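Researcher: Please translate sequence to structure tokens.
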Amino acid sequence: MTSKQQITQFLQQEFPQTKCQVIDVGHRSSKVKQTIGFDELRPGGTVSGPALMAIADVGLYVAILGEIGLVALAVTTNLSINFLRKPTANKAIIAECRLLKSGKTLIIGEVSLFSEGDVEPVAHVVGTYSIPPAKSI
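Model: Translation complete:
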């Protein structure tokens, strides 16, 4: 399993634009956090859908890196989100992720997104990722 520190360093090098912070990486799981600022809000004082999708995507990517190692070319092939309730605009978003299936070419996972400190999720996400084939020598 790839460590939290290894994944954090990898994201800083390969994906420096992410605002997500890795909180935990476990067996087929991860937890990430993103502070919400002006750039993540939409009119009406709520966290935008694209921001929530991005946080979920990073969370699943972190769980995948923890499972299969530091594979930069693992890519999202599908992401489905259900918005459940309005996120709190002045609280960070927490993504709790778990992998449901880890195959040779596809990995499927789910994410529950929460406003930090709240027990009810603001969104539920399911994502599928394509894993590049190992290069043979």
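Researcher: Any highlights?
Model: The chain has one domain: 4-130.
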